[in-house]
Structure formats: C-alpha cells, structure tokens
Write a structure and sequence with these properties.
37% of the residues lie in helices and 14% in strands. The protein contains twelve helices and eight strands. The radius of gyration is 18 Å and the shape is globular.
Length: 314
C-alpha cells in the first residue's frame, strides 16, 4: 500500500544485503515474548508442509496446505510470499481449519499475469479455489491481499463464505493515504526499516519474534523486481479508485470482519472505520497499540476473535 516507485534491485538482493541487520535484530533477547504452542497432535506444521502446485485455468499456482476442518484461505500482501505468514499463526488456525496459503501472480511457482491488477489477482485466486474444490471457503486477506479479497467477494460471491479484511483499504479513492515516511521505509529494501512499519515503536520483541519465526521455512525466495513494480502499480490504481470493482464494497454479501491495529503506520485507522462502514453489516475489531502486522503482534487475542467470527470453537 504505497505510492512511489521501488528501487531497481531484486528483492533477493535486498534480502541478502539486509541479512546481517536481521540477524542483529534476532540476537536481542526475546524475554517477555510468548512462544507459540506446538501444532495440534496429528497436524503437520506449515513450515514443513510441501509446496504444491495447482493447475488452474489461470495457470499454475504454488501453495501450501495444513490442517483439517472448514477451509480458510489466506491471501498475502504487497511484496510478500506465502512464507511471510508466521508459522505459529497458520498452525494455530490449522487446529480448526484446512488452511491454504499461496503465492500471488508471478511469485514463486505461481504463473505471472500480464497487465497485473487487483481484479486480475482476484480472478487467479478464484481459479485456485475452483481447482482445489473449495466451494465456499472463508477468506482472509492482509494489506494488498485484503484488496484482492474484496474484489474476490464482489466478483465471485459464491466462493466466499466469510471475509476477513486485515489492515487494508477500500478502493474508492477516498482512503487516507499512506504516510510518506512509512511508504519510504517499506520501499527501502532494508529488513529493519520494513519491520519498523509492520510493528510500532516499542514493540521490538514482537518484531524479533516474527522475523525469527520466518526462518523456520526452508529455502529463501522472494518477489522479483518486475513483479514488485507491477504489484505497486496495481495497488496505486486501487487506492486511486481506478478499479471499478473497488467501488462495490456495498455489494459484498459475505459476513465480514474488518481488523487492524490502532497504530498501523501504513494504514491509518480511519481507513478501517471507512471500510467497515462500506461493507454491509461488517464487524470492526481494532487492537490497541498494534501495527500493520497486528495478526502476529496480537495473535493471542486475534486468533480467538477470528475463530469466533468464523464459527469454530477456539
């Protein structure tokens, strides 16, 4: 959710350049940070789940699957891969759900899309749901993923049972803009800078715990610079109100939960109130002092709230 052009170097290079900074962050004490509970008996943890490839009408899509129960699909945000979901978060949801995480267009093993847009990514997501036989799953989209989830719910309403819009904005062109300092940090390529906008000041322990958790995934890969630039253009068009589907949140029929942290540096909290007001009968859950990655920072509070909304026992 940004509005300026990225630097011209690959994300893999940026990750390598920032690796020393990440390790410096991780060497700090984790005192006071609760460790994740082990995965339920008999459930494969997501970090050990193999990367599968679904053959869809929109090309191959790379995904992981973990857990049993009612299906829940997680849609990743800007410049992220499916391995940017904290394993403890996914595994907690897998206690009650068949959880599917996947890569957006052009990322990992997922086919690229020419003329990338939020609507086009929603179409590819729809194709994945069909290929996996997910008739009516719950869908959670984070940041750019929340934009994709809105478009999916508008364009393919029969495919969405319940909708969770996490730290995201409506596509009406009227959302409060991303603060310039936050967008500059997000686009800087520095791991510490990115973590500083995902987690608020004073929450370094939560940022360290999140960064450390991602090291559980085997194999480092990222988003290429061309795909990153295309995602950026798609997000800009959505925020500017240039996608027609972004003006149709009033047509969303699925029960919807809008959630965010009150200290989200990338998505001003006014946008959460606006979005909740646009979607019929939407519920709003705000986490005091949490940031853009509130679902990780306040996992202990958010997962039970999410389970209650989805109708599963926590």
């Amino acid at each position: 959710m940004v509005a300026s052009k990225p630097r011209h170097r690959s994300r893999r290079a940026r990750l390598q350049l920032s690796f020393a900074a990440v390790m410096a962050l991780l060497t700090g004490p984790l005192a006071g940070v609760a460790t994740a509970a082990p995965s339920p008996s008999g459930t494969v943890d997501v970090a050990s789940a193999p990367v599968l490839v679904a053959k869809t009408t929109a090309g191959p899509v790379g995904y992981r699957e973990v857990g049993d129960g009612t299906p829940l699909v997680l849609i990743m945000g800007f410049d992220g891969t499916m391995d940017d979901w904290s394993p403890s978060f996914v595994d907690a949801l897998a206690a009650n759900h068949r959880v599917i995480v996947f890569d957006n267009a052009g990322v990992g093993k997922t086919a690229p899309i020419s003329d990338l847009s939020i609507e086009a990514m929603a179409g590819q997501t729809s194709a994945l749901l069909s290929a996996l036989g997910l008739a009516h799953p719950a869908v959670l989209g984070w940041s750019m993923g929340g934009m994709i989830a809105q478009a999916l719910a508008v364009l393919h309403p029969a495919q969405v049972d319940r909708l969770v819009l996490a730290a995201t904005q409506a596509g009406t062109g009227k959302a409060a803009p991303v603060p310039p300092a936050a967008q500059a940090a997000l686009l800087s390529g520095g791991a510490l800078a990115v973590l500083s906008v995902l987690f608020p000041p004073g929450h370094a322990a939560a940022a360290r715990a999140y960064a450390l958790s991602l090291l559980q995934y085997p194999g480092l890969y990222g988003v290429t610079e061309p795909v990153r630039a295309a995602q950026l253009s798609a997000v800009e068009a959505w925020l500017a109100g240039q996608d027609e589907v972004g003006h149709n949140d009033g047509a969303i029929a699925a029960p919807t939960l809008v959630a965010d942290g009150t200290s989200d540096a990338l998505d001003p909290v006014a946008n959460d109130h606006q979005l909740a007001g646009l979607v019929p009968r939407a519920q709003l859950a705000l986490y005091t002092g949490a940031g853009h990655a509130f679902w990780s920072q306040d996992q202990a509070e958010f997962v039970p709230r999410l389970e209650s909304f989805l109708g599963a026992s926590a």
